[in-house]
Write a structure and sequence with these properties.
heterodimer; A: mainly alpha; Rossmann fold; 3 domains; four-stranded parallel sheet; 24 helices; 43% helix; B: mainly alpha; Fumarate Reductase Cytochrome B subunit; 13 helices; elongated
Chain lengths: 562, 315
């Protein structure tokens, strides 16, 4: 690594530093270049306007009546480094002076080196090296990226843009650099504005890895965003606060990122059991900490607070199917979320190890993951190799379990109870990144007479726009970007899927078997007013199952906004 | 002159093989990473693969042996390598340049292989099948070499034009990218010119290959063909030093990343290797990590973040 850090910030006068921040974009009328990342002017590189974005189908085709991007406040601009575009996801406090900027750049370079050391990053070193050293920059991946497409093909959001920045830094500062290297790989100047912009840019990717699927070489720009986030978190202590302070840290401290302690979660579930029993006519009581149960069911705890009908539906199904199951009241054991998946290997491993240890102590035969895509991938796939010996308790998707129950004939169903238009969202983590595609389809095909697919779907699906933690990130004006850009392609898919029945007289159900996706849909449908204007409701899969169960009182699904 | 020419070709070949080996070994020896596959994984059960599914769709999947369908991998890899199927699907415009470029290279490689097979045949043929084989090979060599170099030159020109003219490529194009394509065009151009413009008394590829294998320094090589072969040899040595060695990377990106769905079974090789990695001592310096260079990964992960009860300060 080159030890000396040179930053052009040294040329900033105290007046320049003290001047009120300008909000105008640095780059207009041309695509952003790689070298623009190092521009020292303390202004955003680009600003998106609604007119720049990919048009949406009716009824969202009227730009006049659409949400404009709220500008960042002067206070925000003065307090945080918002140098990328017209939003701010991470809220990096502005360094006090040049010295602090230089220290941060040095810290970044130190982290960059560690990213390529096996002792520090054995977890993803091989795929990262392959991507760094073999992308041919053919841009085949670009058209696969929903964010790039939705932004009107803004260069800043091209999947290869952030990768190219990291690649040039890698060859220059990790591999030794030099003139030949610059000729071969391109040059880049490092300074604090570049690092600050790169931090934000690592949070403009949903990590859906659709781009990786399209890459003929197998390079993975989603992985690059993941690794950058890791560097910032594990070396610099910088991460989106929703993921770290209010996410994995809170989960490790009290037991859940929702803030629910074991006592609170048991109270809440008891309340849900009571509500469900009344609503369904089936007496349910969630079992806790049953030693030797067949199944340990772990929900995303967000369901318990935001969508209690989902864990309630699961409890009802388990009861009627006669399944031996339990939930855990041990801290972390009742919340399947693992936000470390998106930004920090250490936090990820800590949470995964807790989940596995709790299951091992209970002596269950398997863990079943509730309707949460990232929890599926985190515990079933990514954590698999770090769960050694008896900690490697088998994990299974609730999609598989529900399919087993629905097709087994144990329960009687009346599909006419679900006779309304239903479409199915594929959570990326569950489908493209785990291969759980068909079980949920078998269920909706059997139970929902008006089921229609989105185009494309399955492993070719588009992210909801809330992936990689965006669904829970709402600082400043980030929701504008989240809905207008990240979620735009999915919004188009939803509207197209329901294009034959958009009238408000027909209630429509967007089935999203994933908590984070549901969070994104809740906020996005509300943002665009699609419940009020067109009666598009969202919800989980278990709710559709219970709604069609003959033994349950009719009307389980409530056509009310929630 | 001819001696130097032969040595240059042998050295280039040696550099190519050595550089490829270094690259292969460096990737192969990288630690087993956490799983990061993309579905479908074609060696899974075909009934699952056809809709993009995986063994995770099967109830109690761990009770069954892992389905390893190598034919499934081949069904994807062969058209991917030979026809660049992924590129055709996701970037058809680029495919019209990239495919002839790559397919031309395959033909050239085939041609070179046949040249050396031909050179190893007995010169004084005693059996008719040897004569027949030599004749067929000679015709095939001519067709594949001429067609291959022509396709590669045309493809490289197409790629070069796109690099210069397409805004989405220009931003990411380095001087080396341009140089690499021009290198192909020039080297193969000289090969073409050398082959077609040589005097009847001057050696063709078959005679040169024969001379190379037997170190026959009397073979009369035309200047143009010698330049073409010399440049091609340097190109051969240069390729594995650049990202053009993606033919190596692709094996790993597909088989070790995208399709590596092998679960961690107790006592498996994976478990043994991971147990070793968990003894590494990370040095990440953010407060919540709690690494100080002396704790192992296991110790770091099995302890709570040191700053769990207070807000982390930027490191």
């Amino acid at each position: 690594m080159n030890g000396e850090v040179k930053t052009p910030t040294s040329s900033l006068s105290s007046e320049q530093k003290a001047a009120p921040p300008s909000t105008g974009p640095l780059v207009e009328g041309r695509p952003v270049k790689i070298s623009d990342m190092s521009r020292d002017e303390r202004q955003p590189l680009v600003k998106l306007g609604l007119q720049d974005l990919k048009p949406l189908p009716t009824p969202l085709d009227d730009l006049e009546n659409s949400h404009p991007f709220a500008p960042l406040s002067e206070k925000t601009m003065a307090q945080y480094e918002c140098l990328l575009d017209n939003t701010c996801a991470v809220s990096i406090p502005k360094p006090k002076d040049r010295e602090e900027e230089n220290a941060l750049v040095a810290k970044f370079l130190s982290g960059l080196e560690k990213l390529f050391r096996k002792e520090d990053n054995w977890t993803f070193l091989q795929p990262l090296l392959l991507t760094m050293e073999h992308c041919v920059k053919c841009q085949t991946c670009s058209d696969a990226c929903h964010i790039y497409e939705a932004s009107g093909q803004n260069e800043l959001y091209r999947p290869t843009y952030r990768s190219e920045v990291l690649r040039r830094l890698y060859f220059k500062h990790v591999k030794g650099g030099g003139l030949l290297s610059a000729w071969q790989h391109g040059d880049i100047e490092i300074n604090w504005p570049l690092v600050a912009r790169l931090i934000e840019l690592s949070y403009r990717c949903n990590l859906c890895r659709r781009c990786a699927q399209a890459c003929p070489i197998g390079a993975d720009n989603g992985l690059v965003a993941h690794e950058l986030r890791k560097l910032f978190s594990q070396e610099m202590g910088i991460a989106a606060k929703e993921l770290h302070d209010n996410g994995s840290m809170l989960q490790l401290r009290v037991g859940s990122s929702t803030g629910m302690t074991p006592e609170v979660v048991k109270d809440n579930i008891a309340f849900i059991d009571e509500e469900m029993s009344e609503k369904t006519g089936i007496e349910v009581k969630t079992p806790w900490d049953v030693q030797g149960a067949d199944i340990l069911l772990i929900h995303n705890a967000g369901e318990i607070l935001a969508w209690p009908e989902n864990p309630g539906a699961f409890a009802t199904i388990m009861k009627l199917a006669g399944i031996s199951w339990t939930m855990s009241s041990e801290a972390v054991g009742y919340d399947s979320i693992n936000y470390g998946l998106w930004y920090d290997d250490v936090q990820f491993a800590r949470v995964a190890a807790k989940h596995a240890e709790i299951a091992r102590k209970l002596g269950v035969k398997k863990i079943v993951l509730g309707e949460c895509g990232h929890a599926h991938k985190a515990l079933s796939v990514i954590a698999d190799r770090i769960l050694l010996g008896d900690a490697n308790v088998p994990r299974e998707s609730s999609m598989t379990l529900l399919r087993e129950i629905v097709v087994s004939g144990k329960l009687a169903f009346d599909p006419s109870r679900n006779d309304f238009p239903v479409t199915l969202h594929d959570p990326c983590n569950m489908v493209r990144l785990m291969g759980v595609v068909e079980p949920q389809r078998e269920i909706v095909r059997k139970l929902c007479p008006q089921f229609r697919e989105m185009t494309p779907h399955g492993v070719d699906n588009y992210c909801c726009g809330g992936g990689s933690g965006f669904a829970i990130m709402g600082g400043h004006n980030f929701p504008d970007w989240r809905f207008q850009v990240a979620g735009r392609k999915k919004m188009e898919q939803i509207l197209n899927a329901f294009s034959d029945c958009m009238a408000p007289e027909t209630p429509k159900y967007l089935c999203a078997p994933c908590s984070n996706c549901k969070g994104q849909f809740r906020d996005m449908l509300q943002y665009f007013g699609l419940w009020e204007s067109n009666r598009i409701l969202y919800g989980g899969l278990a709710e559709l199952v219970v709604n069609a169960m003959v033994d349950v009182k009719p009307g389980f699904l409530e056509w009310e906004w929630h | 002159m001819t001696t130097f020419f032969y040595i240059a070709i042998y050295v280039a070949l040696a550099v190519f093989l050595a550089a490829c080996a270094v690259r292969v070994v460096s990737y192969a020896r990288a630690p087993i990473h956490l799983r990061w596959e993309l579905y479908p994984v074609p060696h899974d059960d075909p009934a699952l693969v056809k809709h993009g599914g995986s063994y995770f769709e099967v109830t109690d999947w761990w009770k069954f042996p892992l389905h390893v369908n190598h034919l499934g991998d081949l069904k994807v890899m062969v058209p991917e390598i030979l026809l660049l199927r992924g590129l055709k699907k996701f970037n058809p415009v680029l495919w019209y340049s990239s495919f002839p470029f790559h397919f031309g290279l395959y033909l050239l490689i085939g041609s070179i292989a046949m040249v050396f097979v031909h050179a190893l045949l007995p010169t004084a043929a005693v059996a008719s099948w040897i004569v027949m084989t030599a004749t067929v090979l000679r015709d095939l060599i001519l067709i594949t070499a001429v067609l291959g170099s022509a396709l590669s030159i045309l493809g490289a020109i197409g790629l070069l034009v796109r690099r210069f003219t397409h805004p989405k490529l220009r931003n990411y194009t380095t001087p080396a990218d341009i140089f690499n394509l021009i290198f192909f065009i020039v080297a193969f151009g000289f090969l073409w010119a050398g082959y077609f413009l040589r005097q009847p008394s001057q050696a063709g590829p078959l005679a040169i290959a024969h001379g190379l294998l037997h170190f026959d320094r009397t073979v009369p090589v035309s200047i143009l063909l010698a330049v073409g072969l010399g440049l091609s040899a340097v190109l051969l040595a240069y390729i594995p030093l650049t990202h053009m060695s993606h033919f190596i990377a692709k094996y790993f990106t597909y088989h070790s990343v995208r399709w590596d769905d092998e679960p961690n079974r107790p006592g498996s090789k994976i478990a043994v290797k991971i147990a070793e990695y968990l003894t590494y001592r990370p040095t990440w310096s953010a407060a919540h990590v709690g690494a100080d260079g002396s704790k192992t990964w296991v110790e770091v992960v099995s302890s709570a973040p040191p700053n769990l009860l207070k807000k982390e300060k930027r490191s």
